[in-house]
């Protein structure tokens, strides 16, 4: 029986048992097959599990990301949490820059305080955003069976991707956010009707929904957000979504100003308070998309296979 080491980290968390959970496996000798990685991710049953497959000169690391259902080319909190584990356990000398080789892209990671890792924000720079379909507020209200009056009619609704696609939906206030009550069937039927379900989408991935409002629970946070998705044939919510917030930052840079630096809260409705730090700018059509968060180490262990 073989064994492999792994770590559990709370990502985008200010305290333990907040943020989004992540399991990170050290598979630097590439012993696990794709089937085994998928089985482990299903057994762990977090939103994502990562596998560090190769160390290239202590600066570039090949990483694969799995949900309990399938492999994904890119995801936000797994990239942040995996970079934290690399810096904490795999580097003899911590550096402020890393690169993760993902299926979608090479992802640049920056760590402003590598020698104060447990308190440092870890940032990822996301790929250039793709601005896709727009939707009317009536389409969203009818398609998802939510009240039109809960939507912020002054802001547009659009699908954006920096590696994974999200439809960004503005809500009027926290009351509207708290009252969201989507059903699996309505969500799935809407995606299918728009060719955005994984069985009929161009990418093979289902588009997720990212709701935001300018009201926040805590002073100092600029937005409250929720991300809803279909996973394993059920409606799920994510506690903190770095990839979606990268799309949100691109949205803000397009509609709110050419330079943005804000703190976003997510997961509050789930009891998993998460804090995402967004900063970026756009110049001559080129976007700089940085999303960061803090990490809290929860446990380490050995997995037998």
Could you describe the 3D structure shown?
With 305 residues, the chain is of the alpha+beta class. It folds into two domains: 3-127 and 294-304, Diaminopimelate Epimerase, Chain A, domain 1 (Roll), CATH 3.10.310.10; 130-288, Diaminopimelate Epimerase, Chain A, domain 1 (Roll), CATH 3.10.310. 21% of the residues lie in helices and 40% in strands. It has an 18-stranded mixed β-sheet that branches. The longest helix is centred in the N-terminal third of the chain and has 15 residues, at 76-90. It starts with a strand and ends with a strand. The relative contact order is 0.18. The mean pLDDT is 96. This is PhzF family phenazine biosynthesis isomerase. Belongs to the PhzF family. GO terms for molecular function: isomerase activity. The active site is at 48.
Write the SSE topology.
Elements: E1 3-11, E2 20-26, H1 34-44, E3 49-56, E4 60-66, E5 71-72, H2 76-90, E6 97-101, E7 106-110, E8 122-126, E9 130-135, H3 137-144, E10 157-161, E11 165-170, H4 174-178, H5 184-193, E12 208-213, E13 223-231, E14 234-238, H6 242-255, E15 259-266, E16 274-283, E17 286-293, E18 295-304
Parallel strand pairs: 2-3, 4-6, 11-12, 13-15
Antiparallel strand pairs: 1-2, 1-18, 3-4, 4-5, 6-7, 7-8, 8-17, 9-10, 10-11, 12-13, 13-14, 15-16, 16-17
């Amino acid at each position: 029986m073989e064994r492999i080491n792994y770590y559990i980290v709370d990502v985008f968390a200010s305290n333990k048992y907040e943020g989004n959970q992540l399991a990170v496996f050290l598979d630097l000798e590439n012993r696990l097959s794709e089937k085994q990685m998928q089985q482990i991710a299903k057994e762990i049953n977090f939103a994502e599990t990562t596998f560090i497959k190769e160390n290239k000169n202590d600066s570039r690391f090949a990483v694969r990301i799995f949900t309990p259902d399938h492999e994904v080319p890119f995801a936000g909190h797994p990239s942040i949490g995996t970079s934290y584990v690399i810096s904490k356990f795999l580097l003899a000398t911590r550096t402020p820059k890393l690169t993760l080789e993902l299926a979608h892209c090479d992802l640049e990671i920056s760590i402003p305080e590598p020698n104060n890792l447990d308190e440092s924000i870890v940032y990822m720079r996301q790929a250039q955003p793709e601005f896709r379909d727009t939707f009317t507020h009536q389409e969203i209200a009818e398609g998802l069976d939510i009240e039109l009056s809960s939507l912020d009619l002054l802001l547009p609704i659009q699908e954006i991707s920096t590696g994974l696609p999200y439809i960004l939906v503005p809500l009027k206030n926290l009351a509207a956010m708290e009252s969201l009550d989507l059903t699996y069937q309505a969500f799935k039927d809407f995606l299918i009707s728009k060719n955005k379900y994984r069985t009929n989408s161009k990418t093979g991935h289902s588009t997720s929904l990212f709701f935001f409002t300018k009201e926040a629970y805590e002073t100092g946070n600029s937005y409250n957000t929720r991300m809803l998705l279909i996973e394993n044939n059920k409606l799920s919510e994510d506690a903190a979504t770095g990839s979606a917030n990268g799309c949100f930052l691109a949205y803000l840079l397009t509609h709110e100003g050419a330079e943005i630096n804000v703190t976003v809260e997510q997961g509050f409705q789930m009891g998993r308070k998460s804090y995402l730090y967004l900063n970026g700018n756009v110049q001559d059509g080129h976007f700089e998309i940085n999303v960061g968060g803090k990490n809290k180490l929860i446990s380490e262990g050995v997995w037998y296979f």
